[in-house]
């Protein structure tokens, strides 16, 4: 199986370049560096992909610490501030019996970012150490990461909405707390990591 | 594969690392900074031991210093011995320096009491922990929490004073200190003094009020209500309601001490039990032989009515067997504390022969004194009262007689205008035993007041007269209330009578002023008494008011049956001031109760005074001038105003063949003015007609003459119009056309309005026509389509060949009618149609179209002829000739 994948004819081997923007196949021999159709720069593989992805994954991993340990939301109820981290909120929902909401937030805010960071790390390590096994599964893993990336912003959207809606002066106000930008950073970093990664490198490792 | 004609790519190995690695580096820097900061900001963990953790929540309850959160409770642990809780608090790093040995923590709970509302914020946010930093320099991490807010720190800018008191009373921590009812400070703490027989209260005065506290300022406990009642009135003093519930301390600086020095911190004052005690600052002692009647706190030291001090305590010295009264003396009465001052106790003295010091009966005994003029001294021995058994003052004695001895006692005053002018010196039964004979002494100064005709009455006790118009409580002076007394007065009429002779003149003492007034005509109020005759007394009661234009001018003084027993005679008294209002022509009527006049025009409810509703009342009016009434004159009392008004009306009977809505109260109008009313409607003897009795105003009686025409006006609805519409609502009324001849009492009414209306002004002419057509009464007469007159009636000519139509032309249009004026019938529509001329429709007006009408035209110039006289006959043409319509005479209407 590995052999088949390794030996399968690829565009590269056929001397073809794929434009990353308009997906036009350009024979490498005729290439002038730019796509004849859309004018985008042409690369055989996403440039510097591994390096960039590594950097972004590391960033996400670092940022996930303040994102999870600092309070993400501040609720002022009758003047008493109540700061809660992401985990506090999830625990709150589970305690209150709202398992559904708790599960959604748990998935979107904790599991998905962790999954993305660990998954990307796994893929990158696999390239780095030229682990040739499970390539298909790794590809599937990457597609999942790419797909679910956008949903991690759920928490930030909830806080942003609440901050705008719950604004009753002295009675109750909700505001984003310090963790919010870090959390947003984690999500962005993982999303960019998925974008900069070129999955074809998995096979070429 | 052919090598494409492209330049060979130069492959360079990139040196260094990709710039994208800046991102994780930045993230690292941020992370590192956050870590550093959290380490930096990590709070100081302390433990505070509280007896209870009520209202404290982990991670919620904050430590608040001057309104700013400086820490948060992180954990609550129960002491292993279960005697309290250890509250673990993470304090703000910045408070580190303040966490010293004597820093105080306490739990702030909402407190709502009559005195104040505190910590209200905690109602919503939950309790919080208050903190007050200490002055020590020794850092500390473990504290013992206080149950309540600690006293203000020593370095607070206000004034700290100490108050000493025997008992704590209702004073508590935070009890407020008032100055003129304004809170100027509060009690911080209190403790027993070392010996344990007094209390030392630490009080704090707010810095802005510091200047009010002088060294001579006096403090007293103003908790509760201060009530002091006596014959001389009562005093009620209360500081704020809060102080009632919460206790309070008031202070004031006597005005003469205002210049004393300002108090300094730690100054000690005495806290007096009450205001009175605070007022009397100087102390003296008085040794008594007996403390009977002397009460601590109540008995006063009086000097000529001036309250110089009050007894604060009475002690008994067992060794010396003496009673000592401790007296607080008003500093202004300092002059009594002199060698030579004499003190004695004044007690009430009640004996058969004399009443003395009567006020002490109620006020209690008091201590009197005469000041001495020796050196200062503050202890005295009470002495026997000075012999002040003064002789009776000079005066004249008179003899009085009374039915009984009630209210008489020896020494009881004799009052004149409530002023004591003498006293009863003696009284006893008369020799016969039927009456009491007494002797009064009138002081020399007043003897001239006693005239031969003076009237005496007893003034003892209290008399209460209660009635609808209020309650009258009458009493003499307090003395007479208890001891009785007699009053006298000299009637105005007797003011110039001779002086009474002492001894020989005997006066009778009446039981009360009322009796005196009844028995002695001279005392009776002057006024007019008249009699009213009525078939029954109805609701008129004694003292019922007599009103004139709703103003009370007199009252009913008596009611009785007349000799025959048929009628009631009511005696009425009219005050002199109003007597001139009553004339011999006046009419009295009963105004008791409520009169309701209801009708379509609304309801009119009329009552006289409330008193007259219940007690009955009589009113009178004077419809026509007359001679002033004489005393005892007899009047008739009418049932009501209506009846009283009708007395000057004439009764005229009118026979109607058809009564059609005629009823009692139907108005009789002449020119729309009501001149009378139907009083009664009944059948005539033969039962074929109705006779109504109408009351006609006197001035209108002359209208009813032999040939007066009377008829009933009822609503009239016809094609021609609606007449007398108002009678649909108001009901029919009777009207009349006055006639000539001698006045009559009986008239037979017409069955309908007379056909011929008589008009007073304008020109009346008669138009002759072969038939009446659609003309009716009130059909209009037009001149150039302007209505200038109307048909007033129509009748057959005497020979019945023609119809005579009576027309009235109102001025100034009567000048339009001349000898050759033409009249034609303008009723209906004339439609002329021709092939060439088209259709022409003529009509005068819509009214004329429906109700019929007459038009007229007068020829021009000399053709018109002379103006016509009243009653001239004209011919009424069927229609106008063409040329008539062209006439344009010029006739001046001015």
How would you explain this protein's 3D organization?
The complex is a heterodimer of chains A (205) and B (894). Chain A has 205 residues and is mainly α. Chain A has two domains: 1-44, no CATH class; 48-204, Up-down Bundle (Butyryl-CoA Dehydrogenase, subunit A, domain 3), CATH 1.20.140. In chain A, 57% of the residues lie in helices and 10% in strands. Chain A is built from eight helices and five strands, in the order H-E-E-H-E-E-H-H-H-H-E-H-H. Chain A has a three-stranded antiparallel β-sheet with strand order 4-3-5. In chain A, strands 1-2 form a two-stranded antiparallel sheet. The two termini of chain A are 15 Å apart. With 894 residues, chain B is mainly beta. Chain B has seven domains: 27-144, no CATH class; 159-278, no CATH class; 280-383, no CATH class; 395-523, no CATH class; 527-638, no CATH class; 650-748, no CATH class; 763-886, no CATH class. Chain B is 9% helix and 41% strand. Chain B contains twelve helices and 63 strands. A seven-stranded mixed β-sheet of chain B has the order 5-8-2-3-4-1-9, with no helix packed on it. In chain B, strands 10-13-12-11-17-14-18 form a seven-stranded mixed barrel. A seven-stranded mixed β-barrel of chain B has the order 19-22-21-20-26-23-27. In chain B, a hairpin with a 6-residue loop joins strand 48 and strand 49 (690-696). The termini of chain B are far apart. The model of chain B has no long low-confidence stretch (mean pLDDT 76). The interface between A and B is medium-sized, with 25 and 23 residues.
């Amino acid at each position: 199986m590995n052999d088949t994948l390794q030996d399968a004819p690829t565009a590269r081997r056929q001397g073809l370049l794929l434009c990353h923007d308009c997906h036009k196949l350009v024979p490498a021999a005729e290439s002038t560096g730019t796509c004849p159709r859309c004018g985008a720069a042409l690369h055989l593989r996403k440039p510097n992909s591994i390096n960039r992805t590594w950097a972004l994954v590391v960033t996400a991993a670092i940022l996930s610490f303040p994102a999870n340990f600092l309070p993400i939301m501040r609720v002022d109820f009758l003047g008493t501030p109540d700061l809660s981290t992401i985990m506090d909120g999830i625990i709150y929902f589970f305690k209150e019996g709202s398992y559904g909401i708790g599960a959604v937030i748990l998935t979107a805010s904790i599991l998905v970012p962790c999954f993305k960071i660990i998954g990307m790390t796994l893929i990158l390590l696999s390239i780095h150490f030229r682990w040739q096994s499970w390539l298909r599964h790794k590809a599937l893993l990457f597609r999942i990461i790419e797909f679910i990336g956008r949903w991690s912003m759920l928490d930030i959207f909830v806080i942003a909405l609440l901050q705008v809606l719950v604004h009753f002066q002295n009675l109750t106000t909700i505001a984003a707390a310090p963790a919010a930008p870090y959390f947003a950073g984690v999500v962005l970093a993982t999303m960019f990591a998925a974008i900069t990664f070129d999955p074809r490198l998995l096979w070429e490792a | 594969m052919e090598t494409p004609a492209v330049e060979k790519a130069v492959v360079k190995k990139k040196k260094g690392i990709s710039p994208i690695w800046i991102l994780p580096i930045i993230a690292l820097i941020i992370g590192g900074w956050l870590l550093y900061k959290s380490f930096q900001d990590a709070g100081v963990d302390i433990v505070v031991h509280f007896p209870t953790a009520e209202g404290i929540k982990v991670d919620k309850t904050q430590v608040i210093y001057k309104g700013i959160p400086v820490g948060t409770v992180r954990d609550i642990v129960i002491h292993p011995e279960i005697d309290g809780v250890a509250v673990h608090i993470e304090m703000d790093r910045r408070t580190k320096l303040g966490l010293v040995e004597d820093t105080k923590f306490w739990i702030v709970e909402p407190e709502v009491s009559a005195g104040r509302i505190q910590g209200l914020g905690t109602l919503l946010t939950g309790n919080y922990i208050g903190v007050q930093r200490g002055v020590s320099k020794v850092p500390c991490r473990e504290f013992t929490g206080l149950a309540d807010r600690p006293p203000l720190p020593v370095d607070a800018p206000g004034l700290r004073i100490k108050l000493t008191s025997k008992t704590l009373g209702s004073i508590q921590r935070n009890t407020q200190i008032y100055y003129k009812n304004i809170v100027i400070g509060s009690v911080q703490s209190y403790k027993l003094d070392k010996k344990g027989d007094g209390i030392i209260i630490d009080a704090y005065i707010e810095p802005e009020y510091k200047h009010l506290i002088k060294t001579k300022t006096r403090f007293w406990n103003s908790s509760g209500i201060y009530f002091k009642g006596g014959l001389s009135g009562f005093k009620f003093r209360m500081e704020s309601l809060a102080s009632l519930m919460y206790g309070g301390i008031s202070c004031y600086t006597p005005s003469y001490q205002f210049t004393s020095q300002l108090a300094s911190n730690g100054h000690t004052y005495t806290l007096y039990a009450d205001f009175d005690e605070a007022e009397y600052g100087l102390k003296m002692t008085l040794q008594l032989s007996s403390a009977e009647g002397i009460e601590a706190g109540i008995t006063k030291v009086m000097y000529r009515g001036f309250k110089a001090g009050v007894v604060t305590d009475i002690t008994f010295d067992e060794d010396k067997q003496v009673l000592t009264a401790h007296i607080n003396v008003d500093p202004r009465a300092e002059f009594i504390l002199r060698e030579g001052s004499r003190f004695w106790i004044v007690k009430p003295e009640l004996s058969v022969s004399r009443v003395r010091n009567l006020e002490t009966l109620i006020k209690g005994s008091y201590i009197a004194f005469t000041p001495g003029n020796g050196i200062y001294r503050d202890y005295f021995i009470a002495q026997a009262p000075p012999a002040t058994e003064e002789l009776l003052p000079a005066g004249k004695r008179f003899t009085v007689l009374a039915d009984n001895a009630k209210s008489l006692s020896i020494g009881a005053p004799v009052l004149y205008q409530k002023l004591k002018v003498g006293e009863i010196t003696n009284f006893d039964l008369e020799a016969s035993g039927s009456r009491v004979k007494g002797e009064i002494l009138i002081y020399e100064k007043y003897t001239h007041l006693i005239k031969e005709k003076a009237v005496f009455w007893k003034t003892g006790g209290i008399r209460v007269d209660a009635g609808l118009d209020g309650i009258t409580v009458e009493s003499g002076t307090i003395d007479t209330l208890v001891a009785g007394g007699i009053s006298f007065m000299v009637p105005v009429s007797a003011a110039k009578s001779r002086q009474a002779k002492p001894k020989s003149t005997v006066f009778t003492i009446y039981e009360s002023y009322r009796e005196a007034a009844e028995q002695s005509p001279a005392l009776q109020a002057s006024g007019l008494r008249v009699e009213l005759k009525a078939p029954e007394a109805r609701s008129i009661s004694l003292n019922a008011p007599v009103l004139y234009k709703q103003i009370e001018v007199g009252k009913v003084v008596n009611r009785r049956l007349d000799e025959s027993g048929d009628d009631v005679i009511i005696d009425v008294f009219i005050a002199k001031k109003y007597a001139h209002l009553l004339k011999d022509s006046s009419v009295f009527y009963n105004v008791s109760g409520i009169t309701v006049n209801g009708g379509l025009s609304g309801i009119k409810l009329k009552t006289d005074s409330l008193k007259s509703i219940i007690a009955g009342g009589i009113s009178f009016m004077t419809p026509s001038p007359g001679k002033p009434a004489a005393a005892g004159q007899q009047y008739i009392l009418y049932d009501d105003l209506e009846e009283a008004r009708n007395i000057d009306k004439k009764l005229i009977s009118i026979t109607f063949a058809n009564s059609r809505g005629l009823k009692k109260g139907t108005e009789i109008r002449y020119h729309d003015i009501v001149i009378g009313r139907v009083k009664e409607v009944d059948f005539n003897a033969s039962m074929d007609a109705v006779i109504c009795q109408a009351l006609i105003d006197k001035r209108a009686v002359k209208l009813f003459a032999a040939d007066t025409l009377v008829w009933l006006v009822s609503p009239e609805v016809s094609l021609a119009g609606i007449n007398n519409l108002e009678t649909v609502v108001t009901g029919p009324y009777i009207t009349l056309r006055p006639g000539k001849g001698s006045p009559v009492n009986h008239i037979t009414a017409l069955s309908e309005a007379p056909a011929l209306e008589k008009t007073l002004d304008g020109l009346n002419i008669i138009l002759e026509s072969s038939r009446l057509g659609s003309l009716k009464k009130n059909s209009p007469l037009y001149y150039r389509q302007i209505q200038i007159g109307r048909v007033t009636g129509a009748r057959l000519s005497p020979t019945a060949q023609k119809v005579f139509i009576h027309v009235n032309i109102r001025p100034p249009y009567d000048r339009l009618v001349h000898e050759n004026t033409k009249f034609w019938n303008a009723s209906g529509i004339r439609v002329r149609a021709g092939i060439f001329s088209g259709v022409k429709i003529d009509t005068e007006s819509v009214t004329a179209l429906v109700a019929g009408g007459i038009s007229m035209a007068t020829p021009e110039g000399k053709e018109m002829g002379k103006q016509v006289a009243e009653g001239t006959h004209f011919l009424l043409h069927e229609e106008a000739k063409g040329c008539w319509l062209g006439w344009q005479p010029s006739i001046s209407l001015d």
